[in-house]
Every structure is written in structure tokens, then in C-alpha cells.
Amino acid sequence: MSVSARGSQTVFVTADNINTSATVNVDDIVVRESKAIAGIAKDCQIWAKKQLKLRDKCNALLLKKGPTYADKCKDAGPEPIGCDPGNFVEAVLVLAHADNDQQVDAMNAESIIDQDVLLEQMKCQKRFGKAAVGFVNKYVNFVNKKCVLAGVDGASCRATQVNDSKKKLDQIDKCVGDQLVDGGTGRTVPVVDAPCDVCIDGLGNIDRKCLKSCFQVMLPELGDGIVGDIPECGNGILQAPEFCDDGNLVNGDCCSDSCTVEAGSADGPAADPTCSDLLDNDCDGDIDLADTQCQP
Questions:
Q1: Among 95, 105, 111, 256, which one is most buried in terms of CB atoms within 10 A?
Q2: Which of 208, 222, 201, 7 is nearest to 93 (CA)?
Q3: Residues 198, 210: contact at Cβ < 8 Å?
Q4: DSSP bridge partners of 4
Q5: What are the distances in angstroms from CA 98 to CA 86, 102, 196, 224, 272?
Q6: What per-residue confidence (pLDDT) applies to 267?
Q7: pLDDT tens digits for range 253-296
Q8: Is the dihedral of CA 103, 109, 115, 117 positive or negative?
Q9: Residue (of 154, 162, 63, 151) closest to 103 by Cα position
């Protein structure tokens, strides 16, 4: 098994929703293919980092100059084989730009907006992209280096890397404009994708604290898709720091419920019930009469 699936949906609720037991509509969960075994090759890490930066830069250029400057957009070249099967790099860009994410089809980008009126809004959009790209690149690097390669990967280690990467989100605090609609094109700037779009109310007010918190929840999940899944004991995939993973959380079968190797009880002699129970009682890899301790 070389890949798994990753998908979740963060739902924001208010105190009124809770107090009135309100029904809250939830968007469909988008499930993306991710790497089951954590770790990212050097060429993939370089590609992902460069691709995020270049395509984010392309978005900012198209917002300012329009499709006539599409030929100025660059990318990081061919994606290394198996690098990002679930397109998590693109998902990062979508989260930070929503409907203003145009770098995928730069030649057909929308017309430019009025820079005299929406200059600060354009700067905000650029800062959202820079914050997301900076956070993910740092997080992926930290997880690979300090968790996976260090042999201590897990939810706790990755949570530490989230905390150490979150300063990159301070770019959002530098946004000084509110959301506006361009009179000529009808485009709204700045925008972010769901679920973080709730941090901009219907009047165009941007809750920067809310947006930073939402990015801090959503971006690590996308980063995990790039670097590979957190080791999960019991899923049958052996990943450091697991010593074994037999696909269950049952004790007494040589692999414990915490994925450590258990000491077994001795088999034999040949007539003993342990030599015909189809179990590896002494955890040496051999079963019943195939085990030398069960031989006559």
C-alpha cells in the first residue's frame, strides 16, 4: 500500500447554534489521495516548495496585470513521480485565493481590477497567499526533518511543528484593507476558500485572528498530504516509530496495541496445544510444527 486517503471538513459554529441546537449545513468532504508512508524525497520537497512560491507569485501577477502577463508565470517543472498524488500543493493555493486562484489557467485569467480603488485589497490577497505558502513549506520541512527522519513521528511531534511554523501566518496581520467588490469586473478581493471564508463577514470585514486560526487548522492537514500521513498504529502500515503493525489493536498477538513487539510464551513440546493453534505463541515468526520448538 503506497497511498491512503485524507479528507476532513472543519465546521464553524456560534454560541447561538449550540444554545438552540441548530442544524448546521456542512459542505461535502473532499477526499484526496495522500502518501500512506510518511517522508518526502529531496527532489519532491524542492519541487513542492518552489511550485508553491512560483504559482502564488503568478496569482499575484495575474491579479495585478491580467492574462496579458500570463507568459511571465513560471512553475517548478515536471512533478517528481509520486510526489503529490492528491494535488495538495494546488489545494494550498485554492485555500489562500479561492475564486482569485487563476494560476492553473493563466491564459484565461479574468480582467484586472481597479488598482486605484482596491490596492490594499490586492495586497491582502497577496499576504494571504504568502502566509499559506510560507507556513506549509516550513511545516513540511520541519515534519520531515524533526519527526520522520528523527524516528519520532506522530501527532504530538507534528503539533510541535505547527506551533513552530505559525509565525509565518503573521503576514495576515499586515492586511489593512477590508474585502471590497471591484466595480468593473465584479470580482471580490480578497477571498479565501471554505471553511476559512467564514472569517470574512457579509459586510467585508476581515477577522484576522479567525483567519489565522483557520489557516492553522487547515494548512497542516494539507502539509501532511505532501509529506505523508501520521503513523497510525493498527492500520497495517509499518512506519517509524512503530516497531510492528499487524493491522489491529489486539494485545497478545506479538504486536501490542501500541505497535511494540511483545514477548511470547514458549511453544511445545510437539503434543502441546500451542503447537496446533495456528498462533505464533513465542513471537519468533514460525507457527505450530514449522516452529523448531514444536518439533518432536
A1: 95
A2: 222
A3: yes
A4: 34
A5: 18, 9, 10, 21, 67
A6: 64
A7: 888 999 998 877 666 677 788 888 888 877 877 888 888 888 76
A8: negative
A9: 63
Cβ count within 10 A of residue 89 = 23
H or E segment and range at residue 165: helix 155-165
Residue-averaged pLDDT of the chain: 91
Return the number of other C-beta atoms located less than 10 Å from residue 276's C-beta: 13
Rounded to 5°, angle at Cα 91 from 125 and 195: 70
pTM of the model: 0.86
User: The cell 518552489 sits on which residue?
Assistant: 50
Distance CA 186, CA 119 (A): 15
CA-to-CA dists, residue 67 to 118, 123, 244, 247, angstroms: 18, 19, 53, 51
- 3-class secondary structure per residue, 19-72: HCCCCCCCCCCCCEEEECCCCCCHHHHHHHHHHHHHHHHHHHHHHHHCHHHHHH
231 vs 237: CA distance, rounded Å: 8
Supply 111's cell numbers. 480582467
- The Cα 225–Cα 237 span in angstroms is 16
Nearest alpha carbon to residue 101 among 84, 89, 86: 89
Q: Which letter does DSSP use for residue 272 in this model?
A: S
* DSSP tag of 149: T
Sign of CA dihedral 267, 269, 273, 275: positive
Find out whether 38 and 231 touch, Cβ atoms under 8 Å: yes
Instruction: Determine whether 284 is exposed, middle or buried from the number of CB atoms within 10 Å of its CB (0-12, 13-18, 19+).
Output: middle
What is the widest separation between alpha-carbon atoms in the chain? Answer: 92
What element of type H or E holds 16?
helix 15-19
